[in-house]
């Protein structure tokens, strides 16, 4: 009953992932694409969980072997996809892979996560030892690996899962230090950039276009004669006499001032361009760091959900191996958490796509009739 009850929210979450990912382009982020691939394994695991103990007392029927095959092949898929997410973090940080290059290796990921487990899962269908009996058969909760083959089950399912978990943890541990170092460097650069901008603002507190006042001492002195008068007027910046030679002085002044203005403007443009380039580089690095950190947070959530799923399941198997019997509490916990893998993934998917879901909700609200 528990397996079926907790499979329902997982199936609903899995359908939500598939529908939104296929229908809306905004949901097709790199992390969401990996969750999308893992969803098919979750659905198959839920199908096996819904079958529950239907064939538990008829181990020779094809339904029992089918249920065991599905569990053996698809139940550990989340652990392998968690490792894939960690590998993407490693490739992004240490080998500078972009989204296009990561997408090109997804075919390899699909083969490793679903193709390789298919080989032993299919092989075990045909194992029937006279001493220990069939490999697939009653396993208390459902049809899976029989207790007499529990060592082989640990070696072929639980061990690969925990190897994947350990490698995933090691990658995050190493990458975490690098991410923190990069974030610290970016904060330091941002702080220095702000201080530099403040210093530049203090130094250029005057208007950007500098008006250069040229004193009359640096210009040649002319004493033009005003028309109909013998009075001489000394031209200056503030006093302009309308005459041919005065216009020459005025033109000289104007050219000198305009040249000075252009020189100042060019220098300011160059400084602004340099500051702009630095700012753009800093913003680009900051945006990249934010994107990587967001990706890492989501993969860590996926990894945490994986631990919640597989710690009680593995403990249950180990206790059965050592004592020859299972603890009732661990069995109940296993029956709850294993079918919930799809639900956990749907929650992570919703978190990474919260802005897209908000947009969908806004569209729905605008289309609903107003009751006012």
UniProtKB/TrEMBL annotation:
Membrane topology term: Multi-pass membrane protein
Domain G-protein coupled receptors family 2 profile: 1-353
Keyword field: Membrane, Transmembrane, Transmembrane helix
Single GO molecular function: G protein-coupled receptor activity
Gene Ontology terms describing biological process: adenylate cyclase-activating G protein-coupled receptor signaling pathway; cell surface receptor signaling pathway
Entry protein name: G-protein coupled receptors family 2 profile 2 domain-containing protein
Domain G-protein coupled receptors family 1 profile: from-to ranges: 13-349
Listed GO CC annotations: plasma membrane
UniProt-annotated location(s): Membrane
PROSITE patterns referenced in this protein's UniProt entry, alphabetically: G_PROTEIN_RECEP_F1_2, G_PROTEIN_RECEP_F2_4
TM region(s), chain numbering: 6-22, 34-52, 79-95, 107-127, 147-173, 290-312, 332-352
Coiled-coil zones: none
């Amino acid at each position: 009953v528990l397996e079926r009850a907790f499979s329902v929210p997982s199936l609903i979450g899995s359908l939500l992932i598939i529908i939104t990912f296929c229908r809306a382009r905004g949901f097709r982020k790199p992390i969401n694409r990996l969750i999308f691939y893992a969803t098919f394994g979750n659905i198959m695991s839920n199908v096996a969980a819904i079958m529950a103990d239907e064939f538990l007392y008829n181990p020779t029927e094809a339904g029992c072997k089918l249920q065991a095959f599905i569990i053996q092949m698809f139940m550990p898929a989340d652990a392998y996809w968690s490792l894939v997410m960690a590998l993407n973090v490693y490739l992004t940080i240490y080998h500078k892979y972009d989204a296009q290059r990561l997408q090109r290796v997804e075919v390899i990921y699909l083969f490793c996560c679903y193709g390789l487990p298919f080989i032993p899962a299919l092989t075990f269908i045909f194992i029937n030892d006279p001493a220990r009996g069939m490999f697939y058969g009653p396993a208390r909760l459902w049809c899976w690996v029989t207790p007499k083959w529990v060592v082989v089950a640990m070696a072929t399912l639980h061990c690969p899962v925990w190897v994947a978990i350990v490698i995933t943890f090691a990658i995050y541990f190493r990458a975490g230090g690098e991410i923190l170092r990069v974030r610290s460097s970016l904060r330091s650069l941002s702080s220095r950039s702000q201080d530099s901008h403040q210093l530049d603002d203090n130094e250029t507190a005057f208007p950007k276009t500098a008006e250069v006042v040229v004193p009359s001492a640096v210009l040649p002195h002319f004493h033009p004669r005003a028309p109909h008068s013998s009075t001489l007027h000394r031209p200056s910046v503030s006093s302009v006499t309308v005459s041919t030679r005065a216009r020459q002085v005025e033109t000289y002044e104007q050219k000198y001032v305009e040249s000075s203005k252009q020189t100042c403007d060019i220098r300011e443009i160059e400084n602004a361009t340099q500051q702009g380039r630095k700012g753009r580089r800093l913003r680009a690095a900051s945006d990249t760091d934010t994107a990587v950190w967001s990706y890492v947070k989501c993969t860590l959530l996926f990894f945490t959900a994986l631990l919640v799923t597989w710690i009680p399941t593995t403990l249950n198997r180990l206790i059965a191996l050592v004592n020859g019997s299972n603890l009732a509490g661990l069995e109940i916990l296993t029956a709850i958490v294993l079918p919930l893998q799809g639900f956990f993934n749907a929650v992570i998917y919703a978190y990474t796509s919260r802005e897209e879901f908000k947009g969908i909700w806004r569209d729905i609200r605008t289309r609903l009739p107003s009751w006012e």
